[in-house]
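Just wondering, can you check both lines?
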Amino acid sequence: MGRMRAMQLDGPGKQLHMVTRPLPVAGTAELLIKVAACGVCRTDLHVLDGEIPAHYPIVPGHEVVGRVLAVGKGTSGFAIGQRVGVPWLGHTCGVCGFCRSGHENLCDRPEFTGCTRDGGYASHVVADARYCFALPDRFTDVEAAPLLCAGLIGWRALRLAGDGRRIGLCGFGAAAHILAQVATWQGREVYAFTRPGDEDGQAFARSLGCVWAGSSETAPPLQLDAALIFAPVGALVPAALKVVRKGGRVVCAGIHMSDIPAFPYADLWGERAIMSVANLTREDGTSFFEMIEKAGVRTVTERFPLEHANQALQRLRDGQLTGAAVICPDAQA
C-alpha cells in the first residue's frame, strides 16, 4: 500500500504539522482522490482556533480539487481519472426532518470536510461520492478550488439576499471577490466594504465591477437592498442594518462570528431582516456550477506548497491576501 502526506491539526490553538499515513481506502459510496489543489478558507481558522466543533486530530481543508484514483463499492456517477470537487458538506444522515424536507444543510447528524472528516490539506483524501461535484472545464485546478466554499456559500448567501438591485459585500476576501462578479453579471450594483485603510482592497473591488468601495466605517452613497457579511465581525451587523433600506436583508454568511453588540430596535424596524447562512445543499452546488459557466467569473489566487499551509493561514488571518490562497500538494516548498 502507498503512503500519503498531510498537514494535521492535533488540537485547537496548535500549528499544523506534516504527517505521513498509509493511503486510505475508498469505502462504500466513497472516492479516493489525489488532491491537486485545496483552497484556504476562513472556516479553517475557526477549526484551528476551536471556535467551531471539530474532531481532532484533523486534516483541514474543504475546497478540494483532485482526480479520482479509486471508486468504492456502490459508487456511481464518477470514473477513475475524473476531476472532482469536494465541498464543506461531506455527508448527511438523509433521514432527519431537515434532510427529508430539502434542508440537508441543517442536518442533525452531518459530517464536514476538514472538520469532522479529514480534508484536503493532503496529497490524498477520501470523500463521499454523493457530495462531490463535477467541475467546469474552463477553470484550472487552482482556479476552481475557491469555488468549493467561497463560491458555494457566497452563492447561497446571494440567493438568500433576494432580488434587490443594490448589494453590499462586507469583508472583501475570497467569497466577495467571486460574488461581486456574479452579482455584476446579474445586472446588480455591488458596493464593497473593506477594513479601514485597505485602499488596495478597495481598488481590487472596483477592478471586479463594484460601483463603490470604501471602509466598513463609511456609509455608501445610497441605501442598499441587502448586505452580505463575510467577515466574522459581529459589529458589522448593526452597521449593515443602518445602510439597508426598509424591507432590506442583512445576511451573515460565516459559520462563526464574534458577538453582535446591542443596537436600537429602530435600526431593525421597517421589516428589515437578519439572516444566517448554514452550510450548503447539493442543489446549491448544482445551480452554482451551472450559473458560473455563463457568468465569466475568474478567481484570483495565490499558491502555497503543502508544507507552507501555516503561512497561508497566517496570511489569511492578517488580511494580507488578495483573492484566495490555494494549497498545492505537488508544489515545491
